[in-house]
Amino acid sequence: MIPEFQIYELGDLPLLSGEVLKEAKLAYQTYGKVSETGDNVIVMPTFYTGTNSRNEGFFGPGRAIDPARHFIISANLFGNGRSSSPSNAPAQQSGPRFPLVQMWDNIAAQHRLIRDHLGIEKIALVAGWSMAGCQSYQWAAQYPDMVRAILPFCASAKTSPHNFVFLEGVKAALCADQNWNGGNYVNPPEAGLKAFGRVYAGWAFSQTFFREGLYRQLGFQTIEELLRDWEQDHVLGWDANDLLAKLATWQAGDVSIGPFYNGDYKLALGAIKARAILMPCTQDLYFPPEDNEIEASLMPNAIFRPYHSPWGHCAANPGNDVGFTAQLDANIRELLGE
């Protein structure tokens, strides 16, 4: 029986912060086979609250990304419960003691997996939703000679100040739980996790989504039903410290952080050689299209191609907006030259 994911042992992983992630493990899964010429490799990192299993909604038979034609590598973000995370780290780094892992660190680890472990030298495409899309920018800036194309959708190259503040809001809701105890909780902070989910739901969809009652298309008769579903998803599905570890990675997101660009955002984007299609949703409250328009103007080979949808950030969630899925596949085919 094929396991849901595999583990690549990284050993003690030096981090950009100067700390070391002890006994680091990178969870991943592959689909399909590498072609004889090695030109069919597609990397799909995971998004916030995502796993390689959830990434499977972005590809399949007949899709633009298809295991019958491509070799797909789905790498799990540190902090997501499969790769090294507060919930599975050695005791000295468990829970709130987990170090800050930045985008740079995630991509450095993925690079080791892909080049050293899997023996791959070229990547045809790095694509992903939300934080996965943020990692696609990072891949292209960190290893510009390795990546041929990127397609970040509902993402950005740098976490904006407004995005940072939004994340502070959901973080504060979680940490206000009396059981939080600075992350050293004995029992899961369920009230905080529910509050986190409720606040998050208000940002995940657009104002139009709620005004027009599109939540009914998801099977909810009232907004309260939707909010309770988000509550339960976070209570049953996520460790609180894991959520905050990934949130810290998100808040620190900046493609120019690291030894190559020393915080020069324009220099980092200008160094990206990969062809790119930047695909925001026009009503996304996390990553507004204006940010991507600025990025495209700074990247040598980028096309700014927004998609109009009232589903907001969740337009990209498989099954929500069939038009988004169709446009995503068309953009992928364009980048792959198919």
- Rg value: 19 Å
Give the tally of structural domains: 2
Query: What is the rounded distance between the termini?
Result: 33 Å
Tally of DSSP β-strands? 8
CATH class of the largest domain equals Alpha Beta
Mean pLDDT: 97
Beta-strand percentage range: 5-15%
In CATH, the architecture of the largest domain is: 3-Layer(aba) Sandwich
Instruction: Characterize the largest beta sheet: strand count, sense, and whether it forms a barrel.
Output: 8 strands, mixed
According to CATH, the homologous superfamily of the largest domain is: Alpha/Beta hydrolase fold, catalytic domain
CATH topology of the largest domain: Rossmann fold
Number of helices: 11
* Strands ordered across the widest β-sheet: 1-2-4-3-5-6-7-8
Stretches where pLDDT falls below 50 for ≥5 residues? none
Q: Helical residue percent?
A: 25-40%
Report the principal-axis shape: globular
